[in-house]
Design a protein that fits this description.
With 119 residues, this protein is an all-beta fold. The chain has no helices and ten strands.
């Protein structure tokens, strides 16, 4: 299967998880394409001063791969600067958020997988 770029869903999330502004997820996989392993695989663009608010993951994990830009990642209450090449991991039961603190776009890959070890 090949998904052409022009055929992928481009979303707009306003105040995602009570964050600031509008972020723009581009859907990579969805629905049955996960074969029961997860629920989200997106490339998300954050314009300057936008964020996904602080939230907890229960029964799942979330990983971010920072593709470009710079931001601030809240790792269970600890603020950590992130930039291109960095990877973040939010385990089952943990909380996180991310904010674009740079002058250009922050672009990340976000993947949410189900934590089957806790099932």
């Amino acid at each position: 299967m090949v998904k052409k770029a022009a055929d992928r869903k481009q979303l707009e999330l306003v105040n995602a998880q009570q964050g600031q502004g509008t972020v723009y997820p581009l859907v990579v996989l969805e629905g049955d394409e996960f074969t029961g392993a997860g629920r989200l695989f997106n490339v998300i663009t954050f314009p300057p001063k936008t964020s996904i608010g602080y939230h907890q993951h229960v029964g799942e994990t979330e990983t971010y791969l920072i593709l470009s830009g710079e931001g601030m990642y809240n790792d269970n209450g600890t603020l950590v600067p992130v930039q291109a090449g960095d990877v973040t991991y939010c385990a089952n039961g943990e909380s996180h958020s991310i904010e674009n603190t740079g002058d250009g776009d922050l672009v990340i890959v976000a993947v949410i997988l189900f934590d089957k070890t806790k099932a």
